[in-house]
Amino acid sequence: MRYIGAASRGIRLPVVTKGADLINLISDTVIAASKSERDPFVIRDRDIVGVTESLVARSQGNYVTLADISEDVRRRVPEGDVSILFPIMSRNRFHQLLRGIVNGVRGKVRVFLSYPSDEVGNQVIDPMNYYLNSDRLSGDSFDEEEYYKVFGECRHPFTGVDYVKLYRSIDPEKISIHFANNPLAALSFSNTVLVASIHSRKLHRDILEKAGARVITLDEICSAPVREGAGYNEQYGLLGSNYTNDNSVKLFPRDCGTFVRALQKELFDRTGKNLEVLVYGDGAFKDPVCGIWELADPVVSPGYTDGLNGMPKEIKFKYVADNSGDKDPSDAVREAIAAKSEMDKYGHCTLGTTPRRMTDLIGSLCDLTSGSGDKGTPVVYIQGYFDCYLDD
Q1: Last residue of some domain: 201, 227, 250?
Q2: Count of domains observed in the chain
Q3: Which domain holds residue 192?
Q4: Do 261 and 230 share a structural domain?
Q5: Does 216 share its domain with 273?
Q6: Is a pLDDT exceeding 80 seen at residue 1?
Q7: What is the pLDDT averaged over residues 372-382?
Q8: Has residue 353 got a pLDDT over 60?
Q9: Residue 274 is part of a domain; what is its CATH number?
Q10: Which of 203, 234, 250 is the last residue of a domain?
């Protein structure tokens, strides 16, 4: 009898820098890991290899300086004031970008923060504080002075940072902080709006453009090289970027579809097995303590092979077992699994099986397995993910 279902392994790699041959390095390491004396495993068809986006971006040298960001903003906003709409509150995700953007704007910069939290759950006002004191506000949109008068200081529960002060401190003479939840509030100060939201950027763009605004989104900035040798991402621009040092950021990787297909082919050529491959960034999950949603990247997976398309089609194991009637529960489960191709995806057998894309589920598993610290496992090897109770 088979006792093990899905299994996820972190694969250790050497430190990767610009120009590394990732295809061969990952293939060599996965094959060596499968034959290792301590933790051997058998490579099988439909196993999955996950590669963290930062590994791909570093091998591409996909970096931009803050001066690059400033130059691109300067070209897109030749004059006047700019409203920046709904950025997330993060030192490694947006603080650096804001420094570059502010330097590229010739006029004043008004940063609009959503409240009581940003798009991914970072609080700018404690929810209970907001509940108790929101009736003291003069309106739905308010400035920094009113914010501190009504709510006082709010520090991030993990980092201890007051992001209102941090963002304004970049250039106190040039930056002012405002609070709103209606995108149109930005037009009270400028007809030029830089939409800094991640997952709601298209909605916010549409709302503002219908009101006559001139709109720029973060995925447009650095979407092409600003200078020879500068990084870029034609699809995501600055979205998915991350702190590198005080003068530069790493962008989301380019050409991930090409990369995953090349790695899939190399692994097939060397093992004879058809493996699936994806590049993954942030997992799509929410911290139950502070309520922060992990996904600060624009997508969980910017590139994956065809076999990872779609959503899982599964029965709810425990529902079938608990409602087997006169049948033996094991037999009922086996029959239900065998009949999956004919089942109604909205029927009782699927209740509780949340309809999510496989790339979001698998990418989240990869992110949790590899972590973001010092495990040194930027590649994740997953087995048995597509198997069910009937597979031996």
Answers
A1: 250
A2: 2
A3: 63-250
A4: no
A5: no
A6: no
A7: 88
A8: no
A9: 3.30.1330.100
A10: 250
Q: Is the domain of 77 the same as that of 199? A: yes
| Strand order across the 276-280 sheet | 7-11, 379-383, 48-52, 276-280, 303-304
Reported confidence tier of residue 336, pLDDT bands at 50, 70, 90: low
Task: Assess if residue 343 is contained within a domain.
Answer: no
With a CB cutoff of 8 Å and minimum separation 6, the contacts of 57 are: 250, 251, 252, 253
Residue 348: predicted pLDDT: 47
Q: Supply the pTM of this predicted model.
A: 0.88
Is a pLDDT exceeding 90 seen at residue 244? yes
* Alpha-carbon gap, residue 102 to 104, rounded angstroms: 5
The tokens of 215 are what? 């709109």
Query: CA–CA distance from 327 to each of 109, 322, 335, 343, 347 (Å)?
Result: 68, 11, 10, 19, 20
| Assigned token pair, 177 | 């902080």
Q: Do residues 95 and 159 share a domain?
A: yes
3-state class (DSSP) for residue 200: coil
Phi, psi of 351 (to 5 degrees): -55, 130
* CA proximity to 222, closest of 209, 204, 210, 235: 235
Q: Do 190 and 299 belong together in one domain?
A: no
| Contact by Cβ (8 Å): 223, 32 | no
Which tokens in the block code for residue 264? 């899939």
**CB of 279 closer than 8 Å to CB of 54:** no
In a domain, residue 340? The reply is no
Q: For residues 234 and 162, state if they share a domain.
A: yes
Helices of type H across the chain = 22-34, 53-60, 66-76, 96-104, 127-133, 144-151, 163-169, 201-210, 256-271, 317-322, 329-338, 358-370
The span from the CA of 251 to the CA of 61, in Å, is 9
84 and 143 both lie in a single domain = yes
pLDDT cut 70: percent of the chain above it: 89
* Integer Cα distance of 198 and 363 in angstroms: 18
d(CA 392, CA 387): 9
Residue whose pair of structure tokens reads 């600060």 in the numeric block: 296
Nearest to 65 by CA among 217, 236, 239, 243: 243
Contact 297, 88 (CB under 8 A): no
